[in-house]
Design goal:
The chain has about 625 residues and is of the alpha+beta class. It is about 20% helix and about 30% strand. A hairpin with a 2-residue loop joins β32 and β33. The radius of gyration is 32 Å and the shape is flat.
Length: about 625
């Protein structure tokens, strides 16, 4: 932590007495020093102001902590939604779940992260070295494990239907993670960490063909997650055993061999959040006057259609003439097209003139869908780019729209304390006529911004600009229109979720059944810059405390937290001018590639704590 400092310990009395002595030295003729003297009154006032200024200069503000973290390359830590995996079963025909489809666990709402296609294809075989089909055992409700052998071929499975050439196959692998492998954290790609490289192959008429790995969230079978493969040629069946795909080790070796519980299709990742408002973009043209909604709120919620008002070189909107624009409170000097692009506006310090006209009354909007697989469309006979704002009618009617007066530093208090900061995007009415101006997404204010910049406070209050920092919207009777708004249910560490067992709208999915494979987790609350800095300081306190030696226990503790590894113990000693760290993995490492991964990861872990002038050498116990 930063030590408490004091730039000036002088109190009001000290400042006042020093000023009086200064007067006695420089102006001995000034003899009337009672409070009734105007000069003495001013002196008292300046003493108070100087004392106040000294106090505020001593404070370490939140903006200071943000600046310190930025110098260290650390950004603000936002809240994070908990997540879980949901498995859909007994799919009779292919079904598309829209992005944002809502499921619930008691009162907690979960959403599908992206559009998901549930396939009627299914697994019909799981094989290991003995080539015996164990699919019946894997399909049991109880957890049955399959230990993989240390060899090139790990396992294979087969599908009832072939995956067509050029299409993707996504499946979920549920692994035994009882070994407590350290989590990898965020920002690590597949190239940053792996123990082995796997080869996924499928059977074709010309033999085994390598499938392209589009996505592997398991890190080559180290963690439970989804794997997405793409086939380039037609698959052929293996008699009655279906269409086979196999997995083998192409490079490297495991420290602990994976144990598989289940492989299944139709598994979707869901996030613990509740989107109340979102938008979809589309383009109406002479060839296409109908737009089909894609998101869950687009299919089930209330819709408002906004068309971009022509400007900045676009063709003028002829639906309203100049006189009509003027009648609606839009002066030609204010909104005339200056022929400048967005970059030029920014260079001249001008806000972007991005106006949207409400054309909902000019559109034909289909009613909300009543069953899974139904389509919902919006028809408009005109042309142009549109933004279709989709809202959850039950949740939004209690608050929006709200009045915005357009005064500096106005506060807009959202009625929810768990608003996702980066999910908030707003439009504000620009005068009359159903015109809206789009305002930027809300984020953490920059260091140089004042308290009254347009941003979220920690309590979920939006504060408008103060005239120098941030935006001050014009006065508006129509008020605020949200185009993106989501709530979240984070929690420090894992979140106790329970069973995800029902749809938010059960009538849309009457025949679909699902279950969550693992208890959800990973949620965390938003943290202030001060909290982040205090944690960082406390983490380094033991190694940087004055007159303290770095002990073997310090190094052992840090090594055992190396992301992605399973480490039983570590030892450290001073040898040959370096700190030699000997690491004992949970099980002996087989193969030089695995040893090199261990060394590289541990060196990277210790480097951020290495004292200036010291060198670290990592060795693996039992290494030849």
């Amino acid at each position: 932590m930063l030590k408490k400092i004091s730039l000036d310990k002088s109190s009001y009395e000290d400042i006042y007495e020093n000023a009086m002595r200064y007067i006695q030295e420089r102006a001995p003729w000034w003899t009337h020093r009672e409070a009734s003297d105007p000069g003495i009154t001013l002196l008292e006032m300046w003493s108070v102001l100087t004392d106040m200024q000294s106090f505020y200069m001593d404070q370490v503000q939140e903006s200071h902590y943000r600046k310190y973290l930025k110098l260290l390359g650390i950004g603000p830590q936002e809240g994070k939604c908990a997540s879980a995996w949901v498995s859909f079963e007994d799919i009779k025909e292919d079904i598309t779940l829209p992005r944002g489809t809502k499921l619930t666990a008691d009162k907690m709402v979960f959403e599908t992260e992206e559009e998901a296609v549930l396939t009627s294809n299914s697994l019909c075989g799981f094989f290991q070295k003995e080539n015996k089909n164990k699919m019946d055992v894997m399909s049991l409700r109880r957890k049955t494990s399959f230990s993989l052998d240390n060899g090139e071929l790990l396992f294979s499975f087969s599908l009832k239907k072939a995956v067509r050439a050029g299409e993707d196959l996504t499946f979920y692998v549920l692994l035994d993670e009882g070994g407590k492998r350290n989590p990898l954290g965020e920002g690590l790609s597949e190239q940053d960490f792996f123990l082995v490289r796997l080869a996924w192959e499928y059977r074709t008429a010309a033999g085994w063909k390598a499938a392209r790995v589009v996505r592997d969230e398991t890190r080559a079978l180290l963690f439970s997650g989804c794997i997405c493969l793409r086939t380039e040629e037609a698959m052929i069946s293996r008699g009655d055993s279906g269409y086979e795909i196999r997995c083998r080790v192409a490079e490297g070796s495991y420290d602990v061999m994976p144990v598989i519980y289940k492989i299944c299709l139709n598994v979707v990742r869901v996030l613990q959040k509740n989107t109340l408002c979102c938008y979809e973009t589309a383009e109406f043209s002479p060839a296409s006057h109908l737009v089909k909604m894609k998101s869950y709120l687009g299919k089930t919620g209330e819709l408002r259609v906004l068309r971009r008002r022509p400007g900045n070189g676009q063709q003028e909107d002829r639906s309203l003439g100049p006189e009509e624009w003027r009648d609606q409170g839009l002066g030609p000097e204010e909104w005339q097209d200056r022929g400048l692009g967005s970059e030029e506006w920014r260079d001249q310090g001008l806000p972007p003139r991005e106006l949207w006209q409400d054309i909902t009354d000019k559109c034909v909007i289909a009613p909300p869908v009543t069953a899974v697989g139904e389509e919902r469309g919006v028809y408009f006979s005109g042309e142009g780019a549109v933004k279709i704002v989709c809202t959850d009618s039950e949740a939004m009617s209690q608050y929006f729209p709200c009045h915005v007066s357009g005064v500096a530093a106005q506060r807009i208090e959202l009625p929810w304390g768990n608003v996702m900061r980066e999910s908030v995007e707003l439009m504000l009415a620009q005068g009359g006529g159903g015109l809206y101006g789009l305002f930027r997404r809300m984020k953490e204010p920059e260091e140089e911004c004042s308290e009254y910049a347009w941003h979220f406070r920690e309590d979920g209050v939006i504060v408008l600009g103060d005239g120098r920092h941030g935006d001050i919207p014009p006065a508006s009777e129509r008020g605020l229109l949200p185009v993106s708004l989501a709530l979240w249910e984070g929690g420090r560490g894992n979140v106790s979720i329970g069973r995800i067992k029902r749809w938010a709208k059960p009538e849309l999915f009457p025949d679909l059944k699902f279950t969550n494979l693992l208890t959800g987790g990973g949620g965390k609350d938003r943290r202030s810059a001060k909290e982040q800095f205090q944690e960082l300081a406390a983490r380094r306190e033991q190694l940087t405390a004055e007159n303290r030696m770095v002990t073997e226990e310090d190094i052992r503790r840090l090594v055992k937290k190396t992301p992605g590894l399973m480490i039983k113990n570590a030892q450290a000693e001073w040898k040959g001018g370096s700190i030699v760290v000997t690491v004992f993995p949970v099980k002996p490492l087989a193969g030089g590639a695995c040893v090199e991964v261990y060394k590289r990861c541990i060196r990277k872990q210790l480097e951020q704590y290495r004292l200036v002038g010291s060198r670290i050498r990592v060795e693996i116990a039992g290494e030849e």
